[in-house]
């Protein structure tokens, strides 16, 4: 790690002097803090650091490898001023060493890089901490504190605290869920249900970066002892996705160390490997990771149902309509500019609704945020992801972009029509790997999603509703299936061909 080092070997300095020093640090692009201390001071330092949010690497009983000769004495901050500034500077990353490495009482080592303009900065700067980890130690647990501080705890294999931890948690299973969309979470639920059933004598700790996963998992699997821990989001909401996933990948390295520690019954990092999705679907990949039968998992899965007032609205609507369908014309997936990339457009949705009205087809809105001037027969924007299972199971069909509504329909056995665009993804769309699990018809285009005409979508919807277009009830799979068979119920739309026909 490049930069200069300064140390403070005791704890007395005026607030004015410390503020002056921190002002110099705050003008830099990044600040890294290493704390070296002896065992006697360890507990008091740990207690005080609990009040500072950020990522803290706690190294247990480790000999630090940074030579004292690389440091020069500069200042001695007080704890109050240090912690106040640490809270204000969200680019401060703290590494913590203890165990009499150089027979110091307490010292701080500040290192900072000036960086370049517009350089990527993240609150979880794991990549800059990898080289600081001494040889012969590895991660064996994580602790998430109330103030969104994440402790990644390292130690040597033969360590008293580590052995004590093993005795307490040998029947626990740790499951880490990387950042994912609601559609990914939905298709994981049947697999988790089968996995929990196979390990019913264990307790489960699930680490997730999505607050909504807590309610979904607890209500769906209330019969098991499950603790859900929320890990703070790995990146600011305006951060670029490629850097975001880079940080997640580095975090995964520590999870693999925890898995290899043999402390817990099992440790699972449920990140989907895109390279594997050519030969198997995302659902099959997750099933393989948890070693469960994908077909049996889907057959026995009991999705959460609720008695919702909207069900009465749907039944009343059926009195005046031939069919009742759901529509999700956009999702919250964003590109690097912060724009929606799975958006069929408000205008297409408006035209589609007119066609449905003319044919006495009632439409339920499944988009969480909508244009106020669109007139829906029923609006389900207030319904939670979990309660969408109940709503979608009551519909005749769901029309959606590649998103959570279609995946829920595939699990509930509701007819579903998905519209895809190659331009709606960072990479070529893995259409087969992410198709809903059953009862699906797909329209895909290499053009923009908005160019798929409402008339085409409506015609396919009508064919599904009246039974002229039969959809596959059996779970859609990729493993053991000939490539030619994957194209069942898929239509490729080419705008140029349509325009050519219209000009004849």
TrEMBL record:
Species in which this protein is naturally found = Bianquea renquensis
Q: Which domain of life is it from?
A: Bacteria
In Swiss-Prot or TrEMBL terms, this protein is called: Glycosyltransferase
